[in-house]
Backbone:
């Protein structure tokens, strides 16, 4: 499978570019974090750092062919009976990377543990049911039923992003930065199910290289740009973010 990646220039570049950007982001954040001392500010920073730690591992899985397989599509699929290259490792590793995005946002909004926990559980199941959609080859209808279930979990995640956390961020005094990152997240995240639907595993309007680049492009903004914007804000250790001691709270 490693050769299947190497022989397709669009597919290969969509993977290698992200390995480089994830590596770069890790170095930049590791250096910036050295001057952050408050434990809450540091926790948010470390959470964003983990997004790229997962990402570089995820893209290594794709580059090495470990998490890629040709799957024969069932009857009803536009490419029925043909082998479609599935980069299923993406869906698996989103279950590890996206929780860190939500943890960072929840902490920024000073949300409560129960809400952060619930948003993350919904998010993990959104990714795992998306993986199930990609790996189901026995029935075309079942692929889309998994897709629908994943979308239902996604709606749950959107509820926290659109309703619960903005109100809490308002109270916490982080409304400005929160709304920037919140809208960036909502718009970019909606792009992922759209790419799945249009991509080679869905309606097959895009071939594998274009599908992979579409995800990679979304990743560049949803992970690395998101991380840099958030860490630039947190590194000043604003009052709205830092730990409040019991004496002053
Ligand atoms: C799938 C397909 C099934 C329906 C839905 C999906 C949503 C995926 C999302 C992924 C976000 C990924 C990010 C990765 C960065 O590391 C699984 C594509 C709703 C929202 C932000």
Residues:
């Amino acid at each position: 499978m490693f050769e299947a990646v190497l022989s397709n220039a669009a597919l290969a570049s969509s993977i290698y570019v992200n390995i480089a950007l994830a590596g770069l982001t890790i170095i930049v954040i590791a250096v910036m974090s050295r001057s952050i001392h408050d434990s809450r500010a540091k926790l948010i920073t470390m959470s964003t750092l983990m997004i790229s730690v997962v990402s570089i591992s995820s893209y290594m899985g794709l580059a090495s062919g470990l998490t890629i397989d040709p799957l024969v599509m069932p009857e009803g699929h536009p490419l029925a009976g043909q082998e479609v290259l599935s980069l299923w490792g993406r869906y698996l590793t989103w279950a590890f990377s996206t929780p860190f995005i939500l943890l960072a946002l929840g902490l920024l909004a000073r949300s409560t543990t129960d809400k952060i926990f619930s948003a993350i559980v919904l998010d993990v199941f959104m990714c795992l049911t998306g993986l199930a959609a990609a790996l189901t080859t026995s029935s075309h209808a079942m692929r889309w039923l998994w897709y629908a279930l994943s979308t239902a979990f996604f709606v749950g995640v959107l509820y926290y992003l659109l309703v619960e956390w903005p109100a809490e961020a308002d109270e916490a005094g982080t409304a400005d930065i929160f709304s920037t990152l919140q809208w960036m997240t909502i718009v970019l995240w909606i792009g992922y199910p759209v790419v799945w639907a249009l991509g080679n595993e869905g309606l097959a309007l895009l071939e594998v290289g274009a599908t992979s680049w579409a995800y990679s492009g979304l990743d560049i903004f949803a992970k690395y740009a998101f991380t840099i914007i958030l860490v630039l804000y947190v590194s000043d250790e604003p009052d709205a973010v830092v730990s409040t001691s019991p004496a002053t709270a």
Observations:
- The longest strand covers residues 69-72.
- The chain has eight helices and two strands.
- The pocket of retinal is lined by residues 91, 94, 97-98, 126-127, 130, 133, 147, 150-151, 154, 189, 192-193, 196, 219, 222-223 (CB under 6 Å).
- The beta strands are 69-72, 83-86.
